[in-house]
Amino acid sequence: MSSSSSTSPTGDAVTLRRNRILSSKLYFDVPLSKVPLIYSSAYDISFLGIEKLHPFDSSKWGRVCRFLIVEGVLDKNGIVEPLEASKDDLLVVHSESYLSSLKSSPNVAMIIEVPPVALFPNCLVQQKVLFPFRKQVGGTILAAKLAKEQGWAINVGGGFHHCSSEKGGGFCAYADISLCIHYAFVRLNVSRVMIIDLDAHQGNGHEMDFSNDSRVYILDMYNPGIYPFDYEARRYIDQKVEVVSGTTTNEYLRKLDEALELAGQKFDPELVVYNAGTDILDGDPLGRLKISPDGITARDEKVFMFARERNAPLVMLTSGGYTKTSARVIADSIVNLSKKCLIDFHRSR
Ligand SMILES: [Zn+2]
């Protein structure tokens, strides 16, 4: 067992964290005219065109919402806009020194894997890159509150699962999943949280942050042959399912069925945090798996069914997957969840 201060906080640190969470403005009351779908136009990143250098559709989040509005399932006025996570909010999980390290543009460039960002003044990097991320973090944290109230919530962003309290990487500058769960512990009186991480990559950030925390059960299904190769973090996965490069839809869904069955026997969650990366899609250059769009729809339906059967509130985060088709696939899956009555947009009509 580790004895590091980040995983075994002292009494003072626990009190400080608790006070920060209790005084946060991120949990605000949402009128019933809204649906628990969280998004802000501030999520979308555009930065003098250099966003095109990353193999990413950096306006995926806005496109998901536009598809849902065009499909007629979502009313624009029904969307919940989150607040930006403040420095005090981020300090719930992150250290002062980690947050200070983001004041260096070269360091941010490394974390988000866009080398030219190193050359920009940090005020621009804050405004164009880190502010959108902090908005998404605010969305992930709020999502747990809305899920507790309404049974489910989707943050059309977030899922920065490579970031831990002390270390960013893989496009992830803030540990939104760890933050969301700490807020839920204190504000929602929840003590058993299951993370179901089905992004193609291993979720090493939350794994490090909850390495010694028995309140969190982590099911991670990932391709072991791609980034981040974090063998230390792998030791903290409660239920590991490795899917090798080239895995196809049927095989993937069969493994997921087995995994959910076992997870349900091992742990009884009071909250499910579902990291629903779409980089498992066939053709995604990073994930290297061969899952069809219908396979993604089936996957999401299985996870929502799992939570529904256990009466557990579910938070969904869109996480990785930034090819040109990702937004369409996410929107189609959300439409399917609505058709299957696993989510309900009725208040927005
Ligand atoms: Zn990923």
TrEMBL record:
<dbReference type="InterPro" id="IPR023801">
    <property type="entry name" value="His_deacetylse_dom"/>
</dbReference>
<protein>
    <recommendedName>
        <fullName>histone deacetylase</fullName>
        <ecNumber>3.5.1.98</ecNumber>
    </recommendedName>
</protein>
<keyword id="KW-0378">Hydrolase</keyword>
<feature type="domain" description="Histone deacetylase">
    <location>
        <begin position="54"/>
        <end position="336"/>
    </location>
</feature>
<dbReference type="GO" id="GO:0040029">
    <property type="term" value="P:epigenetic regulation of gene expression"/>
</dbReference>
<dbReference type="InterPro" id="IPR044150">
    <property type="entry name" value="HDAC_classIV"/>
</dbReference>
<keyword id="KW-0804">Transcription</keyword>
<dbReference type="InterPro" id="IPR000286">
    <property type="entry name" value="HDACs"/>
</dbReference>
<keyword id="KW-0805">Transcription regulation</keyword>
<dbReference type="InterPro" id="IPR037138">
    <property type="entry name" value="His_deacetylse_dom_sf"/>
</dbReference>
<comment type="function">
    <text>Responsible for the deacetylation of lysine residues on the N-terminal part of the core histones (H2A, H2B, H3 and H4). Histone deacetylation gives a tag for epigenetic repression and plays an important role in transcriptional regulation, cell cycle progression and developmental events. Histone deacetylases act via the formation of large multiprotein complexes.</text>
</comment>
<dbReference type="Pfam" id="PF00850">
    <property type="entry name" value="Hist_deacetyl"/>
</dbReference>
<dbReference type="GO" id="GO:0000118">
    <property type="term" value="C:histone deacetylase complex"/>
</dbReference>
<keyword id="KW-0539">Nucleus</keyword>
<keyword id="KW-0678">Repressor</keyword>
<dbReference type="GO" id="GO:0141221">
    <property type="term" value="F:histone deacetylase activity, hydrolytic mechanism"/>
</dbReference>
<keyword id="KW-0156">Chromatin regulator</keyword>
<dbReference type="InterPro" id="IPR023696">
    <property type="entry name" value="Ureohydrolase_dom_sf"/>
</dbReference>
